[in-house]
Amino acid sequence: MTSTIGLSTYAFFWQWHETAPRPVGLIEMIDRTADLGVSLFQICDYPLIESYSADELAKLRKHADDRGVALELGTRGVTPEHLARYLDIARSLGVTLVRSMFYSATSRPTPAEAEQNLKIAVKAYEKAGVTIALETYEQVPTATLMDVVEAVDSPALGICLDPANCVAALEQPSDVVSRTAARVKNIHVKDFSFSRRDGWVGFTLAGIPLGEGLLDYQAMIAAVRPDEHGINRVIEHWVPWQGDSATTCDLEDRWTTSTLETLRS
């Protein structure tokens, strides 16, 4: 088994965001992914995908297939109805992994409620051969997330590892990695650092090109062993706004190129 390097909609965030003069769509993001020699694209936190018709989903899948790009999905929430909707989209796109989070804009389940929801939803995912990967992030302690995943105990449920998120809850990235390593199904790759705010009052936690920040990438890979387990590594960015769209989007593209070079070296 091998680990595929992929890009996410978060690698193009400022380019499809409403601040962009001409927001790019999924077709263009897939084309640019393929042009960079990348064979995986994760459509993550991109709500417009929910409005696609069956015909539009079929055309998107065909375009990705024609460009040699496999697709993954990402959403938020664990209600059975929502996850069933994303399983339908996954089937239409040939997706085998759906990243999600405990909370959505309309639902904040307790751990017990999340566990029950996932026990219901995961049965259909098991039958379809699709995996749910719950992301590590600051709103849910990693220990709580792992308790739920282990209680559900399904081969179709695991962790989307992103230790950068958990820093905001004062969790050490190394602790997040060690606690989740055995259950990781997907990795979001982004580096991060702290910098003093203007006036030296407080700090800003923001992204930085891979290898220049606080993420111990090599230790994470050594713990998770993605190549042994076929765990894909998906590039994301936290690119700070640079004052205008053109400058920010240009920096985003340069970070993507830099991160790909680092991962491939």
TrEMBL record:
Q: Name one GO molecular function term.
A: isomerase activity
Record's keyword terms, sorted: Isomerase
Q: Which residues form the Xylose isomerase-like TIM barrel domain?
A: 31-241
Q: Which InterPro entries does the protein's record reference?
A: IolE/XylAMocC-like (IPR050312), Xyl_isomerase-like_sf (IPR036237), Xyl_isomerase-like_TIM-brl (IPR013022)
- Tell me if Ligase is a UniProt keyword of this record: no
Q: Does the keyword Isomerase apply?
A: yes
Name the domain of life: Bacteria
State the protein's name: Sugar phosphate isomerase/epimerase
Q: Source species, please?
A: Kineosporia corallincola
